[in-house]
Design goal:
This protein has a domain of 88 residues. A five-stranded antiparallel β-sheet has the order 1-2-3-4-5, with helices on one face. The protein has three helices and five strands, in the order αββββααβ. With 140 residues, the chain is of the alpha+beta class. It starts with 7 loop residues before the first helix and ends in a 45-residue tail after the last strand. The chain is 19% helix and 16% strand.
């Protein structure tokens, strides 16, 4: 019998994801909502990147298993994952628009501004209504 090179322990040294209902290697599934027959009920992720959304847990699990067998050591989405569209079509998943890793960097926190004075600021006083403007009245 032909033996697989990779197993779960070798694929990921990380602990199981919090809130994941199913995990295989770095791939895991999170339930987004409880609405029945919602086509975006389950989200498939690799580490912190969303791969796609599906409506049936059985199909999404099958997609994760197939994805794990095809790419056991993948760590993030990229263009080299060329089997994903075919597997997603079979599992009726809605994929992310492009399989390019996110380039978003976390924003650095701004330094707090120095206060100019030590006096407490007073609240602005509300402006008085002018007598010429009509006010809305209840009709019923």
């Amino acid at each position: 019998m032909k033996r697989k090179i990779c197993n779960y322990a070798n694929a990921s040294n990380e602990t199981t994801r919090k809130g994941a209902i199913y995990q295989r290697g770095q791939y895991y599934i999170i339930q987004n909502n409880d609405r029945p027959k919602d086509q975006r009920k389950y989200g498939v992720y690799i580490n912190d990147s969303l791969i796609g959304l599906g409506g049936s847990l059985v199909r999404v699990k099958r997609f994760v298993n197939d994805l794990y067998l095809a790419y056991p050591f993948a760590t993030d989405v990229d263009e080299s994952l060329d089997k994903i569209p075919r597997l997603a079509k079979r599992a009726q998943l809605q994929l992310r628009p492009s399989m390019q890793p996110s380039k978003a960097e976390p924003k650095a926190k701004k330094a707090p501004k120095a206060q100019k004075s030590t006096k407490a600021k007073t609240k602005a006083k509300p402006k008085a209504k002018t007598k010429g403007t009509p006010t809305q009245q209840r009709l019923f």
